[in-house]
# Entry
Amino acid sequence: MVNSGNSTLVDDIIFSPKIIKSTIMFNRTASAFCLTMAFTGIFSNQITLAESVDIRFRGVVEPRASFGISTPGKMESSFSGKAGKGKDEFTNITPAKINVQTSNPITITVSSPDTVDTHSATLRVNSVQVLGNNVTLPAGKNTVEIDMLSKQNHVFTPGTYNYDVTLTMVSP
Amino acid sequence: MLYRFAIASGLLLASFINFIPTALAEVKFSNLSPGVVEAKGVDLKVLESVVPANINVNVPSGTTAQITVLSPSFASGPSRDPSGTKKVGFVEFGSNKLSSDGNNNTITLPAEDTNLEVGLRVERPVSFTPGTYNYFVNLSVTITPQ
# Structure
């Protein structure tokens, strides 16, 4: 039993280094294999390729200008002077209004009505009084108001009167 | 020793062989036709595509491809986009619709050929100055090996 035990002990001493060496060799091979697989896995799974392209769009924006719906103005007559030499006067109590939409600056001109002796029509743009009969409007939406005054040296015949005022837009 | 070296070399070679075809695979774009935009409304604040752009995209088989549409970019025109301009790019294929302004700006593309319809919408807080405008919509496709 003792010899057998010694023999076993000797065998262990002889063979143990080989077993350890084999384990180391196996570990190296396994490590190389694992690294290789990891390398393959990393590059196979994480590499992404990106491609991009620019798609072109082209268009021409044409200049535009338009009048909106107009609101008529209202005038009232007033009498002044002595009997037989009276004067009539129409003054507006409510200005006419119209919206103007333009894509670029335009000049707007107001004409005066031509059926009365003395008359004038004046413009207000966005509530600001305009001097003269024309004004340049900026691009966008603007509200134009028209005030009108009419005088004559004789008495108006009673009745209803209508006057037209013409607005003209011109692109400079 | 030699056989271990041979095994390691073989495995490395195999990994490269696996990797190289994947790296060479790429998305191909073709048949690109540009789109046409037009100003909408009386106030000319909106520019919208009236003719969509078309492009064919080829996704190599064995890959997974994702397409992303980005917000349009101003290229040229009489006036630049002011602050507050809203720009949206669109892509359509089949029943799929992508929009650059939402969460659905990315989707998976099928393998092989797909025809894409691309559109855009630009809304400014002020009117577009009359003239000729150019915009670009960028499409980005990424592919990943399956």
